[in-house]
Amino acid sequence: MKKETDKLADALAPGLKAALMNEVDGREFYRMAALSATSDGVREMFEYLMAEEERHYEVLLEQAGRLASGKPLRFKRSASDRKALDAFHGLIYTPGVFADAKKAEGELAALSIGMTLEQRAIKQFSALLRKAESAGDEAAVSVFAMLVEWEQDHLALLSNQYEAFREAYWEEAHFWPF
Questions:
Q1: What residues have CB less than 8 Å from 154, skipping those under 6 apart?
Q2: Which phi and psi angles does 102 have, rounded to 5°?
Q3: So where are the chain's domains?
Q4: Residue 123 burial (CB count, 10 A)
């Protein structure tokens, strides 16, 4: 008969693999977005998110290793990780970004794609959280709840920037929908 940790590992393994690939996708997307950003603030935000996705990847690898060796999952997000988000709560673009409409549209698209990636990650981690809850593994529940929260923080950051950027873009273009 399988041990409980083996059952949990079997239940979580496919989701962990998918989540690892999502983190790679996010990291590489944010790398490309940073390289093409026209505003220093936007570039810095995408570089920050790229580093965050790398941290998520490392956390997931560590958790997969812990599961494989029969150890309980364990991870705690540091206060400095949460505080680093504060640097991007204000507007991060410069008004000159709107001088070239195509570049501004590219930055809006990058924010939108980033939001889609974060939503996908939230969905994946939420599914893993539900599996951990079903297994009654409080340590795994804690890890996946923290990862959901972390991705929600990223989504909120991107959503806020997207809304502010879009509103400013519309105003600059003298476009007010309905």
A1: 49, 52, 114, 118, 121
A2: -65, -40
A3: 4-67+97-172
A4: 12
> Between the CA of residue 34 and those of 40, 45, 64, 75, 112, what are the distances in Å?
9, 8, 29, 28, 14
Of 21, 160, 163, 43, nearest to 103 by C-alpha is 43
Q: Does the reported pTM lie above 0.70? A: yes
Give the pLDDT confidence of 68-106 residue by residue, as tens digits: 888 888 877 777 777 777 777 766 666 666 565 566 788
Cβ atoms of 150 and 77 closer than 8 Å: yes
- Domain 4-67+97-172's class? mainly alpha
Mean of pLDDT over the chain? 83
Distance between CA atoms of 169 and 113, rounded to whole angstroms? 18
Tell me which residue of 169, 160, 128 sits closest to 147, measured CA to CA.
Answer: 128
Place 1 in a pLDDT band, splitting at 50, 70 and 90: very low
